[in-house]
Amino acid sequence: MSATQPNPVPALDPASAEPFYRQIYDRIRGAIASGVLKPGDRIPSARALMKELGLARGTIETAYGLLAAEGYIQARGQAGTVVTPGLKPRMPVALPRPPSRSGIAAASFRPDSILPFQMGLPALDAFPRKIWARLGGRCVRSMQPADMAHPPVHGLQALRVEIAAYLQLSRGIACSPAQVFVTSGYRHTMELITHALLKEGDRVWLEDPGYPPTRELLGHMRITTVPVPVDGEGMAVAHGIKVAPRARAAVVTPAHQSPLCVSLSLPRRQALLDWAARNQAWIVEDDYDGEYRYISRPLPALKSLDRDGRVLYAGTFSKVLFPAIRLAYLVVPISQVERFEQISEVFAGGSPALTQGIVTAFITEGHFARHIQRMRKLYAERREAATAGLQRVLGQHMTIDAPPGGMHLVLRLHARRSDRKLVALMREDGLYAEAMSDWTMGADVAPALLLGFTNIDNQATVEKLGRRILRLL
User: What does the pLDDT read at residue 100?
Assistant: First the structure.
């Protein structure tokens, strides 16, 4: 009988996005592929590994079950579990990644990690998971055969009703459920809009600086993007009219401009609406985190001022619930409902009905409104703590902007340092940041870091993380 080999499962990473069972699976499979574990070798029992790693036995058994199902290991009863005799594992050859031309790691705007200062993540530690689990269990138990067919491509009717009611009360948007289309995220929303209303070669105004994936998506769909600068009043509408008066659309973030967090002033809102009405152009209002304003009440949506049916309102559940839910929504003008229904039939597969059902219950029972209220208070506290902590440690090297709303801070670097290089160093050190330079299309903006504050619990934590940034400087 082959002796038990040294533990092939080194210390697990609690900060990894991979669950523990998957980490165990990957480590054992890697040990087999590399020859550390050979056919016939015993591996630690689930009981032994459970004690060594301090995990639940079910976690170990899930990993072992997956390995056994794929033929890597075999259970031998009292003789233990061994690597399958005669196994000749074949692992895919890892191809080297081409080096970045800039020598700096490319930023991801949809990371699957949870790192300090990560952008776009709500306070995951404060999400009411027990309530969510209870509602999820109830929705699963009440499923009928009809609920297991293809989901409606426009979205679950009950959820569309709840979204329309919510927008009426919270954002001042008068719309019917028929105008609401449930999507799988902002990118899906933009794809529907582009397919429905734009054609190759059309020109679209984009804020500069602005959310990079928007210009990337439009570029892949052969739409010409026109950078329009942003100042203290938001998008400079007059500049857009000057350089591209006949553009077919404008994509704006009026509540909290992304990334500068300024609000589009009322005169510019009116100028933008007037331009769209005169030119039969479209305005895409990306209200990605309009619920979170800490100085005063949330500002009304631009859509609430739309009298000519030119504004398409894009909202998301990623920022108010959690990104993994992959649910967003789009409100279209009444005149475009039929067109978007046709496009949805072609390009939309429908988001999971079970997930939509849970969200519907979360809203109808009042949990959604209470959660937003709690998060608004919590984020105001964390914003203050993050600003104070970073100012105390980094105030000599950076100017810290604490905008009146949103979910991130802007740290403007002194001495014209490279924000891209500093971001690369922070990523290597396990910290998250995004470089303002990556958000610009041509504007000459000062280098700055964009840091999320929603998952930082207190000022002491912020100061500790700030000292790590200081060492990198």
Answer: 44
